[in-house]
TrEMBL record:
Annotated transmembrane regions: none
Species per Swiss-Prot/TrEMBL record: Saitozyma podzolica
Family recorded in the similarity comment: Belongs to the cytochrome P450 family.
Name of the protein: Cytochrome P450-dit2
Stored Pfam families: p450
Keywords, comma-separated and alphabetical: Heme, Iron, Metal-binding, Monooxygenase, Oxidoreductase
Database matches in InterPro entries: Cyt_P450, Cyt_P450_CS, Cyt_P450_E_grp-I, Cyt_P450_sf, Cytochrome_P450_monoxygenase
Presence of keyword Metal-binding: yes
Amino acid sequence: MTSSSGFSTQNPLHPLLYLALLLPLAYILRKPLLRLVTPRGIPDVPAFPNPSPLLGDLPMITKVIKETGSFSAFFDKAARELGPIAQVRMSYLMTLVILSDIQETEAVFSSKPTTWDRSKDTISLFRTVIPRGQLSFRTDSTFKHHRRLMGPAMTSKYLSSTTPKAAQAASELVELFMAKAKIAGDRGFQAEEDLNNATLDAICGMAFGTNWRLLKSRQEQIRRMPSVPTGSHGEAEFKLHKVPLAESLDYLFESIPMKSPVPTVSHFISRLNPAYHKHHRRLHTFLGKTISQARAKAQQMGADAAVELADNTLDMMVARELRGDDFMPDEDMRDELVVYLLAGTETSATTLAWWVKYMTNHPEIQRKLRAHLLDRLPQLLDRAPTFDDLTTTNVPYLDAVIHETLPMEDTMVLGRRIPKGTVLLGITATGWEDASTPVYAGDSADDEDTIARSQRLQGVRTDKTARKYGFWEAGTGRKFMPERWIDAAGLFDPNAGPSLPFSTGQRACFGKNLAMLELRVFVTQLNLAIFFAPVTEDQNSFVNYETVTNHPRQSIIRPVSWDSSMASATATATATATASASAAAASMPDHGA
Ligand code: HEM
């Protein structure tokens, strides 16, 4: 008779004998076994079994995040306490290496994709919802083909022809803000949802020529609202609904299992819900039809005219395809349009949400920016800005204000060998003062922290002159100071300090040029039309929360026109806002989006 475990019940010593045989074997194999379960990390900092060189593990990270509400605060701590290269155990089998020096980050991410590539985890996340979009590919031949075909969309020629789409969304946003302000009175209201709708309208226009009338729909809803209730911070609460296509897009994005350790399984579960299929079908049917119409329009115009007149990315792709330049299957084209909507909406909207907050807290910068724009481009009082109006050379202070709002990124691999397969994290919005302000021989430093931090950078870069990027002055890293981007000649200097908001190298942001254009258009039109008046302290928190980007929990604004007494009451407005800005900055975990 035999038990289900396979051991003979007639010989009770048998399992013990079995164990006795296994023990010496386990002893002999202990080292390779240990290596197998050891999290990957930097070999000269033993990650296992001695965890002391690690900054922390998952429970510790969770604690910091609970206390501060921010992942970035944890990365900041890593940069400050361990220097520019740190490792953190996320689970028994996974260690993250965190880099925080801009120059090294650039060197690493610009190296060949055979050395570094987008991580498998990131790819498997996006592959669930957009399997044929560039976000879901390794840097392989398909990725390069997609980039080749879409690349011209980021050239001045095409960006110039798409600028009116962004300008239209920006002017509709100004109208919406002013209409809401009329109803809200002096209560203020949350801006982020409107900004999200505005950037989606702009990106739809730039991606396939027409938008979903999200801002128009919001304006129409508001017109039917004589009054709105007051929320818990004294703000006016507008409850507006989305148009169906935007609702479907949100649903699909939310079903990307960002926080799941097993994205494919989580996505399989999401797909069991019939609502998933309804939203998926609605969006894909719309995009399929849009692609067919673009193809038919190009056929009718003829290849050369279609290439010449294309004023959005889809028209440009189908026209070039017709001319015989290259070809992309419908399924890939459709997913690339979804990538535009995904990668181009929330990122720009959160940047603008931080920007309106900074403006609310810095009336003097709003005034300076407006004076600068009117001095350089007085014609903008009569018409919308064009691509050529908004170049860096024309309006350097505009770029300085935008760069001061964008998320900052520091990163590095400082002389350490990183094993194959290690997950390397380039961090946004962290360490850009703390980890990258070394003290050089000859510099004076009187506080122990700065000296200790600097010593961690020893041997990595001691020669100030060999550095491409500057450092922010000690103690100013987290301040909002657009002036620091302007050089002695009054020009914008993109390397003034550590900042890689769009990442770098082969997998840097594809839409950087478009995003910068969109931000220039929005910031210009909003600044020229609106003064963001101070809000109450209760409405001015800088507490943030993180999804794909880092959002302000409160983006409450009080728009008034520049003719109003509020905008001209310089002294009072400045004093109130500066006081509330300093109070808010004290609790501010992050500088940017
Ligand atoms: C303020 C706005 C934006 C910021 C801060 C931003 C930032 C970034 C960053 C940091 C990455 C790299 C992500 C990674 O390494 O995993 C990225 C990737 C990407 N971004 Fe942006 N982005 C912005 C706007 C846009 C816009 C408007 C578009 C639309 C065309 C866009 C399209 C993309 C695409 C397609 C990728 C993936 C590139 C690849 O897979 O190699 N982004 N973006």
